[in-house]
Amino acid sequence: MAATPPNDATPFEQDQAVAEELLEFPDNRLLIDLCGEYDRNLTDVEIRTNVQILRRGNQLVVIGDEDARAEAIEVLQSLYQRLEQGKSVEAGDIDREMRMGGSDAGTGIRSGDQMELIRSDRVEIKTRKKQVEPRTEAQKAYVKSLFDNELAFGIGPAGTGKTYLAVAVGVNMFIQGHVDKIILSRPAVEAGEKIGFLPGDMKDKVDPYMQPLYDALEDFLPGKQTAKLIEEKKIEIAPLAFMRGRTLSRAFVVLDEAQNATTMQMKMFLTRLGEGSRMVITGDRSQIDLPRHMPSGLKDAERLLKGVKEISFNYFTSKDVVRHPLVAAIIEAYEADPDL
Fold first, then answer.
1. Tell me: the pLDDT tens digits for 61-79?
2. Where does residue 35 rank: exposed (0-12), middle (13-18), buried (19+ CB within 10 A)?
3. Which of 32, 33, 54 is nearest to 43 (CA)?
């Protein structure tokens, strides 16, 4: 892959000669994957870097000012290297390259082989169905802390991948044999609809609260395998209240939506940590559904445990939102309102 000035430029391109660069890709099949269906990957890079990209055979002409052109070229080269390594290129990969940049170089394995791979300080988590890579620096630091600490907190707004990445790490550690089970929990806090009025038995009533955890698992494990592991109780998904009285040994435990746990519930949950276990607490302090007079256990835990060096606290902002770009704008608008 080489970058050289084009020698057969169109009249339009000749006018822009000082602001264009040619990228040459040796494998035309990989270039097709790089461009994406109907060149949608190129269009995404164009929009996000404010350049124009023209395709000629196994070459791409990048037109734009120097900084924008350099950014687009770095992204295209990194994505092509992914394809050379046998990986796919999707919208999320483009988003990650735009946020974090840098190309893969060298290979290292973390202690215990827990983290599947680190290239150029880039983290990759291997699961049964897909390989997951953090898309922001905060996400990368968070994932590293999940492997390095027995107890970690992930605090920040919706859409920043707190729970998704925690479940991915849990699945990774489970399939590598570092833990014997995965336990996923949430407080079943009513937010507008009384649980008693929901149809069905207790499982039917609480499952809607647990659905985001099921959704995350489906991304990392085949459906039949997930169902089998749940039946064998190697994966448990249960409301926070069901954790009382248990000692959770050799388990990867995630408490999601922890801002809706009371102080006593949080203390109860944290003290379930057993030998050989990892525990992750995720929450968003701006989405507390508890009654106004009741303090959030997440806030109290943060205040009381901040000085314990063995516990990791990881924070996210609207800049780490990896859902639709509008989600970040919505969060910023709400955060800017002094009355909320």
1. 889 888 888 888 888 988 8
2. buried
3. 54
Whole-angstrom CA distances from 167 to 60, 136, 146, 217 are 39, 17, 10, 7
Instruction: Bin 226: left if φ > 0, else alpha if -120 < ψ < 50, else beta.
Output: alpha
Query: Hey, is 308 helix, strand or coil?
Result: coil
For the CA atoms of 41, 44, 48, 52, the dihedral, rounded to the nearest 10 degrees, stands at 80
Burial of 109 (0-12, 13-18, 19+ CB in 10 A): exposed
Residue 18: what residue type?
A: V
State the CB neighbour count (10 A cutoff) for residue 178. 17
pTM of the model: 0.72
pLDDT in tens, 154-193: 999 988 999 999 999 999 999 999 999 999 998 876 544 4
Cβ contacts of 229 within 8 Å, gap of 6 or more: 182, 221, 235
